[in-house]
Amino acid sequence: MARKNYTTDQKISRLRVYNIVAGSLHLVQALGFAYVLTLLSTQVTFPVTADYLSGPPGVPLPPERVTLFDVNVGIGVVSFLALSAVFHFLISSPKFFPRYAAGLRADRNYFRWVEYSLSSSIMIWLIAQITGITDIAALFSIFAANAAMIMFGALQEKYETPGNGKFLPFIFGSMVGVVPWIVILIYFIGPGSTSEAEPPAFVYGIIISLFLFFNTFAVNQVLQYRQIGGWRDYLRGERAYITLSLVAKTALAWQVFSGAIIPALT
């Protein structure tokens, strides 16, 4: 059976439907997890701390550790799911869909990068806290580095065209984007630690699966800009971005809830 060929306008119309489907799936999960949170008598939270000097600089005194605030991990999960749902519905709306469609015809989607800069940065913040990172400076730096990586992805689309062989924004983004994962890996391995505590199994799953998912976004952009196979069509890459976003967010949400939230119900 011959594969049906669609015009560009038809493909963009199908992407509108796909965005609505993806937004609905994100929203259903966000509402479902929000309901689970209402069943908890005690919320699962991670502290955000700061270490202040307790003496002159260089004096070997333990710093004063202060808990600045707590992050509700469940609300964090609901927030990145809901944020994605909002953007999917936004670009499918009558007001913003023409702008979204025009961008796709020009091989760019700035809506995507704005959403990713927020949602994926929330995700990496939660992953960092799950591995034991509590320091506010480290967490905000991880958030900012991840957001900067996403913005370099946007610059790749703004200043380069698929097939021209230029990847400078992409390279800079990769250099920045690997930093949060290096920090997370250090805390996960715990070099120099004398503690015998081992991370729960779900933490291993989160780090491995989300690291792989985060990198598939980079692979997708490389395929687009190298014009490899079906990725010669920019819209093929756009559909892949939507799928990858849904799968990555779903994977993190369910792993966090099954590993950290659901046990709190018992």
TrEMBL record:
Gene3D superfamilies: Rhodopsin 7-helix transmembrane proteins. Keywords: Membrane, Transmembrane, Transmembrane helix. The chain crosses the membrane at residues 20-46, 66-90, 110-130, 136-155, 167-189, 201-219, 240-265. Pfam families: Heliorhodopsin (PF18761). Coiled coil: none annotated. NCBIfam families: HeR (NF038020). This is Heliorhodopsin HeR. It comes from Cryobacterium cheniae. The lineage of its organism: Bacteria, Bacillati, Actinomycetota, Actinomycetes, Micrococcales.
